[in-house]
Q: What sequence folds into this?
């Protein structure tokens, strides 16, 4: 008997501690593609007084038997998604046997097959697809795991240390693993397959020897050194900066091709999307190298922030994710360029996060209501969560922040805790009151700051008045505690000391009220104010900075980030002016000259210069408008780029030719390639034999950064070279699906009216596979995010393409479908014709009778 169920939300306010503790689990897996047998022996202790049923979670399991203390037991109720066992003694061992089918599991959650290997993904609630269990993060148990499989699966892996392994009479073999650290079920992992292994060791600061092992598909060993180096750097950095040492004796990473996200921090046995591991200079770009390093770091850092101290419930996800993103950002910034890392992080905030926060899925970094937890692995929980940690870091300073971290571990090691517990540790260790600050955890939306500047000539007093407005979509928000960093520059560009009436003022202003004034005296002339320096809080600053002030900030601000920011603002203003006044369709001479001197002088970090030469992205520009003027943004951006290309082509050629790329992965070489890539980007826009030659040379080089720079330049420029270069790439790389993802992405970005026909054809390409999230994201994700003109065609054909895909993915992999849906979430921000066409696709999904919870939650919110 099945009643049609409407998905039910869970609420943070309803949290209750579990009625039973699970002290220990003993799992045995007898692996077979269609019927893996799982035997689970759980040692239980009742945690409450009186009667309590044990309601174990389980989905798509075939129950074989239940026993209590080794005696068959039948006093239970089997529901659709639960096994409820009645009348258990206060302490007992429950043995559950069930079957599962990894081969038909296309959701990539639970136990599934990736290529020829078994692997698992349990966060957030995938363990219930493996066996009946209290599948919640506040149930911490020690795990013993036995894996039995055919000999062809040479490596049998699970968390912790290997106890034994051996042969069985029937020709199969087994391995037994033991994880001494208690953990929640979401950190469980199992892998069985035949891999190539890169082994290494790391000696911790206390002198312990850690065995490191990286498992990849056969033939990929040459692409593993970078990930291994990244791991060792991560381990060392966490010791130095956070005083945190690794705990187990072995650390394993397995790379698999079928994976929903980037990677997963399972205790002692990380599982990675192969695209976040595999790299060499011929197949991976410098950006890939950077991403790999940061994700390897991220998962490693989870060992303390996530695993040793975990979340009480999933509403607290930002406790581990916001904090771990903050840590991986600091890792990247300490090892590489702090400014560029900051720029990248802020771009994510201002485009993706701000738009999520302004749309139908807006939620606080600690959500209060969830239907499908997988929908809350968001830029808000991760990236805004990291900004919230960063603000605490700004308020406390590094030293007190580290005291807070130490207190957090001292209090909570081995526990499942809340965001409040984290903030309490920070506040107790520093003596800084964070009561008001905590509103960042419970309020959604982006606060707006209206800043006004006044200068009193007679008294030499400069005053900033700051008004804090609640987000448009969250009118009831209370004022937040905002660390508002500033710098004041005099006419010569020198920094002005901040003080009033003889008292120094810190450059981080505490904005806590809806309206506040901050005065500074001793100023002989009106200063130029750098506001929200380094993006010290995730806010929108609304104020009219003159072009002259922006140019002054671009030249003199101490923060590289703020210099970039001022330049972006200048370009954004230019695009807006051109949209408002179609006669002003060219960039001002001053702007072109500023760009020209960047290319000619090449002072400082070349990677930063490359960044400064980019126009703001479509998403950045779109964020400036209530109703996104799609056609105008596309047209004006193209016009500006062409203007830059034409007016600076000699400079770009000279720059390109004078830069020497030594082919290494050093920061200098990476910066050189980045700048050369920008030169190609502009040069491709002008059809000249000399440019074509440079592009073809780069496309034929043995460095993927250069190859891709050339290819994306010709594709974006709609250059006649594209067809030939793309075909050449296809025949060169067909054997390597990860490289082919770059090709799929280039195909998807091709302008021209046949883009959609082309994508439909590419679904038939031998490398394409709807059940592989990397392929789907490369082709359709790139189309919907980067092929603005074609995705947003007025006839709705782009939306139709995405709608068709979502219908298909909904049945194969709801988690991936839900991520791919994102572009439709902001349908209300487009003009009438477009928004109606997008809405029609959402309605089409709403009517599916097999609609997954994942899609239901988002579609339902979008249509409300
Ligand atoms: N916890 C992982 C991380 O941030 C991400 C993650 C959550 C994940 N759910 C997942 C990865 C599902 C893959 C599949 O590092
Ligand atoms: Zn994480």
A:
């Amino acid at each position: 008997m099945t009643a049609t169920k409407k998905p039910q939300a869970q609420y943070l306010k309803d949290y209750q501690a579990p009625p039973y503790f699970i002290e220990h689990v003993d799992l045995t897996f007898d692996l077979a593609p269609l019927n893996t047998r799982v035997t689970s022996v759980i040692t239980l202790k009742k945690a409450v007084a009186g009667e309590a049923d044990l309601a174990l979670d389980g989905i798509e399991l075939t129950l074989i038997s239940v026993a209590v203390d080794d005696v068959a037991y039948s006093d239970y109720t089997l529901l659709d998604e639960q096994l409820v066992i009645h009348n258990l003694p206060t302490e007992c061992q429950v043995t559950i046997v069930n079957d599962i089918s990894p081969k038909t599991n296309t959701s990539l959650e639970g136990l599934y097959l990736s290529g020829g290997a078994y692997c698992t993904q349990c966060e957030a609630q995938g363990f219930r697809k493996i066996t009946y269990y209290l599948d919640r993060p506040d149930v911490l148990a020690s795990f013993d795991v036995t894996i039995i499989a055919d000999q062809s699966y040479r490596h049998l892996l699970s968390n912790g240390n290997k106890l034994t392994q051996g042969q069985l009479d029937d020709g199969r073999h087994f391995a037994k693993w033991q994880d001494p650290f208690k953990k929640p079920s979401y950190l469980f992992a199992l892998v069985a397959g035949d891999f190539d292994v890169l082994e290494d060791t790391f000696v911790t600061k206390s002198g312990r020897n850690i065995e490191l092992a990286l498992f990849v598909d056969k033939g990929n060993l040459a692409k593993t050194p970078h990930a291994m180096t990244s791991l060792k750097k991560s381990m060392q950095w966490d010791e130095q900066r956070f005083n945190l040492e690794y705990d187990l004796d072995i650390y394993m990473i397995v790379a698999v091709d079928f994976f929903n996200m980037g990677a997963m921090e399972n205790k002692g046995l990380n599982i990675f999307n192969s695209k976040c591991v595999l790299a060499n200079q011929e197949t991976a770009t410098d950006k890939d190298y950077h991403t790999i390093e940061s994700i390897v770091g991220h998962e490693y850092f989870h060992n303390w922030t996530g695993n040793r101290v975990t979340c009480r419930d999933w509403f607290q996800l930002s406790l581990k994710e916001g904090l771990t993103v903050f840590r991986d950002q600091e890792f990247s910034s300490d090892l590489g360029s702090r400014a560029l890392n900051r720029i990248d992080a802020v771009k994510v905030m201002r485009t993706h996060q701000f738009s999520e926060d302004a749309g139908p899925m807006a939620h606080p970094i600690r959500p209060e209501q969830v239907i499908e937890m997988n929908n809350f692995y968001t830029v808000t929980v991760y990236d805004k969560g990291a900004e919230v940690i960063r603000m605490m870091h700004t308020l406390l300073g590094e030293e007190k922040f580290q005291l807070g971290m130490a207190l957090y571990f001292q209090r909570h090691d081995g526990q499942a805790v809340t965001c409040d517990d984290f903030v309490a540790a920070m506040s107790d260790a520093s003596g800084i009151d964070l009561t008001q600050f905590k509103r960042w955890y419970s309020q959604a939306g982006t606060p707006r700051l209206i800043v006004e500047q006044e200068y009193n000539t007679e008294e030499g007093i400069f005053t900033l008045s700051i008004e804090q407005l609640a987000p448009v979509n969250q009118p009831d928000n209370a004022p937040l505690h905002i660390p508002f960093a500033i710098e004041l520059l005099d006419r010569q560009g020198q920094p002005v000391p901040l003080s009033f009436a003889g008292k120094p003022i810190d450059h981080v202003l505490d904005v806590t009220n809806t309206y506040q004034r901050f005065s500074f005296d001793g100023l002989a002339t009106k200063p130029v104010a750098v506001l929200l320096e380094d993006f010290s809080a995730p806010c929108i600053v609304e104020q009219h900075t003159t072009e002259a002030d922006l140019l002054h900030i671009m030249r003199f601000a101490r923060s590289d980030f703020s210099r970039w920011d001022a330049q972006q603002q200048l370009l954004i203003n230019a695009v807006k002016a051109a949209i408002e006044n179609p006669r002003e369709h060219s960039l001002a001479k001053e702007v072109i000259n500023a760009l020209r001197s960047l290319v000619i002088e090449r002072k400082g970090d070349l990677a930063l210069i490359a960044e400064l030469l980019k126009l703001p992205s479509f998403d950045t520009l779109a964020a400036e408008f209530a109703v996104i003027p799609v056609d105008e943004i596309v047209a004006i951006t193209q016009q500006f780029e062409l203007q830059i290309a034409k007016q600076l082509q000699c400079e770009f050629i000279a720059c390109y030719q004078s830069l020497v790329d030594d082919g290494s992965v050093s920061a200098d070489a990476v910066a050189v390639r980045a700048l050369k890539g920008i030169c190609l980007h502009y040069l491709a826009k002008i059809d000249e034999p000399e440019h074509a030659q440079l592009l073809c040379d780069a496309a034929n080089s043995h460095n993927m950064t250069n190859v891709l720079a050339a290819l994306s330049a010709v594709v974006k420029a709609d250059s006649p070279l594209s067809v030939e270069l793309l075909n050449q790439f296809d025949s060169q790389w067909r054997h390597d699906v990860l490289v082919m993802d770059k090709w799929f992405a280039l195909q998807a970005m091709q302008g021209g009216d046949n883009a959609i026909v082309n994508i439909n054809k590419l679904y038939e390409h031998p490398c394409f596979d709807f059940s592989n999230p990397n392929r789907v994201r490369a082709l359709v994700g790139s189309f919907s995010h980067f092929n603005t003109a074609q995705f947003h065609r007025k006839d709705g054909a782009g939306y139709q393409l995405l709608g068709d895909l979502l219908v298909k993915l909904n049945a194969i992999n709801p988690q991936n479908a839900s991520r791919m849906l994102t572009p439709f979430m902001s349908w209300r921000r487009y003009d009438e014709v477009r928004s109606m066409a997008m809405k029609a696709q959402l309605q089409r999904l709403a009517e599916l009778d097999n609609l997954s919870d994942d899609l239901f939650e988002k579609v339902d919110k979008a249509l409300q």
The longest helix spans residues 379-412.
